Amino acid sequence: MLTSFGKFCRKLRIDNGELLKDMAKKLDVTSSYLSAVENGKRNVPQSWVSEISSKYALDLEQRIELKNAAEESQISNKLDLKDLNSRDKNLMMALARKINGMNDEEKVIIKNLLNKKK
């Protein structure tokens, strides 16, 4: 299934008269790898947002849209827990385990707590 990132890239290619292989060449990857990223089988490499923004001379609004699409399309995310104490590690893992079972109201409460200014 085409991700938000994939839809953005497809539109970008169409607007620039390019094929998947043309964008893949610009990103120095194979067409099959780019396709896997666009279809949510692989994560969007972190460097791609800036590379695509630069190579396609995206304006600020397009860069923001691309960044949001890339973040939304991530299938996994690695968290570095090595500098956290065990209580904080447990908190992170509890949230990861429970997030799918939470309703929208609970998620909003947690998000508001996290965004609360000190």
Assigned CATH superfamily of the largest domain: lambda repressor-like DNA-binding domains
- Count of domain modules: 2
Note the gap between the termini.
41 Å
Rg from alpha-carbon coordinates: 18 Å
Helix percentage range: 55-70%
| SS strand fraction | under 5%
CATH topology of the largest domain: 434 Repressor (Amino-terminal Domain)
Given the C-alpha coordinates, what overall shape results? elongated
Low-confidence stretches: none
Question: DSSP helix count?
Answer: 7
The succession of helices and strands, N to C, reads HHHHHHH
Tell me the number of strands: 0
In CATH, the architecture of the largest domain is: Orthogonal Bundle
**Would you state the CATH class of the largest domain?**
Mainly Alpha
Q: Structural class from helices and strands?
A: mainly alpha
Question: Briefly, what is this?
Answer:
The chain has 7 helices and no strands.
Structure, explained:
The chain has 118 residues and is mainly α. It folds into two domains: 4-72, lambda repressor-like DNA-binding domains (434 Repressor (Amino-terminal Domain)), CATH 1.10.260; 86-115, no CATH class. The chain contains seven helices and no strands. The longest helix is centred in the middle third of the chain and has 13 residues, at 60-72. 12% of the residues are buried. The model has no long low-confidence stretch (mean pLDDT 93).
